[in-house]
Amino acid sequence: MLHLRHHAAQYIGTLIFALTAISLSGCDSNSELAAPADKDIVASADLPSNAVSSDSTNNENSTVKRGQYRYFADSAMFTECNTGQSWPIAPSEEAADIERAYLEAASQDNQAMQPITLSIETHIDVIEGMETGTQKPHLIIDRFIGIDADQHCVLPQAALIGTYWRVNRVASFDVMPAGLREEPRIILANDGNMKGHSGCNAMFGQYTHHDDTLKFSGIAGTRMACPQIMPLESAVHLALSNTASYRIDGQYLYLETESGQSLATLEAVYLY
């Protein structure tokens, strides 16, 4: 009987030791079990070089920036004077103060579409864009310093290729109509391809350019139905088809016919 009790005690001791080893191995830092990934977390390694991770961004990162502010199609953009970089502005009480000041200044000059130069204290954070739902760098306004009395703001010359060109005016459209799926734009790639959006549908094609000549070909697009946007889309396609020359003045691209007739005005919005 004592012999059986001795063996039983040995067996129980061995079992407890084994269970303890298994438990400890599950907590080992070298375990092959990986934690589930959170698809909503943006790794700082994936952020653009000029962005700050939302984990580390706070008011200590604020800097004073001077640049041009523009409110366009229910969204605000800020372009820094000394770098030419542009960011969308995140909604906030401070951003609303700037919007009111802009609309007041614009109404006094009767030029609602013209940018104004102002100074702000701000930092950059990566948040979800209102239009696309994707995460991108935004300016977070920490303090609205004010509108500059000196509106002089010399922006670097934008490059034709590799720049996000937003359509500000085309044909009779000085103001973009309501109901846009995405803002009209074009981007010219190094390989001669053009991609963009005409307001309702994505569009694509090819281009050639030499000196001040610029021609588009093979322009096509997707076939989503947006009846209220169709006139704008037709105007965008027609302007590109008739483009024979271009000129760039600062951050603005002017598409023209061979005789110099203006077809469209686009504004540079840099990609990140």
Can you tell me about this structure?
With 272 residues, this protein is an alpha+beta fold. It has two domains: 44-147, Beta Barrel (OB fold (Dihydrolipoamide Acetyltransferase, E2P)), CATH 2.40.50.540; 164-269, Lipocalin (Beta Barrel). Helices cover 20% and strands 36% of the residues. It has three helices and 13 strands; from the N terminus they run H-E-E-E-H-E-E-E-E-E-E-E-H-E-E-E. The chain has helices at 2-26, 93-109, 230-242, and strands at residues 63-72, 75-80, 86-88, 116-128, 135-147, 164-170, 185-188, 193-197, 202-210, 213-221, 245-249, 252-256, 262-269. It has an eight-stranded antiparallel β-sheet. The longest helix is centred in the first third of the chain and has 25 residues, at 2-26. It starts with a helix and ends with a strand. Residues 1-57 have low confidence and may be disordered.
Secondary-structure blueprint:
Elements: H1 2-26, E1 63-72, E2 75-80, E3 86-88, H2 93-109, E4 116-128, E5 135-147, E6 164-170, E7 185-188, E8 193-197, E9 202-210, E10 213-221, H3 230-242, E11 245-249, E12 252-256, E13 262-269
Antiparallel strand pairs: 1-2, 1-4, 2-3, 4-5, 6-7, 6-13, 7-8, 8-9, 9-10, 11-12, 12-13
Could you name the key traits of this structure?
272 residues; alpha+beta; OB fold (Dihydrolipoamide Acetyltransferase, E2P); Lipocalin; 2 domains; five-stranded antiparallel beta sheet; 3 helices; globular
Largest sheet: 8 strands, antiparallel
User: Do you know the CATH architecture of the largest domain?
Assistant: Beta Barrel
What is the average of the pLDDT values? 77
Round the Cα radius of gyration to an integer and report it.
28 Å
Give the topology string: H per helix, E per strand: HEEEHEEEEEEEHEEE
- Count of distinct structural domains: 2
Strand order of the largest sheet: 10-9-8-7-6-13-12-11
